[in-house]
Amino acid sequence: MNKVEFIELFAEQNKISVKLAEAIVNSILETMVEALAQHIRIEIRGFGSFKIKEYKSYEGRNPKTGENIKVKEKLVPFFKMSKICKNNLIKENV
Question: How many CB atoms lie within 10 A of CB 56?
């Protein structure tokens, strides 16, 4: 499901206009991005948590040439699914 499909489904389920649903979804996503940019952990009970993981620089290897390269330090967004959400997915797939 992409963002447009999500917005349309959200609007339909909440009996609101697509325009209002889009504004709500965009506001939530922008707030989450701003929080993550400030390294603030986001926890949504029953769904999961988002945080930024920091990776230090390290020696890597170019898989094509085998040459050693230095990989720069980086920040990576990380999502961890809650146990409740994980259990619901397992039940639906059985």
Answer: 8
User: Three-state DSSP class for 15?
Assistant: coil
CB 22 within 8 A of CB 49: no
User: pLDDT exceeding 90 applies to what percent of the chain?
Assistant: 89
CA dist 70 and 82 (Å) reads 35
Q: What is the pLDDT of residue 94?
A: 60
Distance, CA of 9 to CA of 21 (rounded, Å): 9
* pLDDT over 90 (residue 2): yes
3-state secondary structure of 28: helix
Question: Which domains occur in the chain, in start order?
Answer: 1-39 (no CATH), 41-94 (4.10.520.10)
The contacts of residue 11 (CB under 8 Å, 6+ apart) are 17, 18, 20, 21, 22
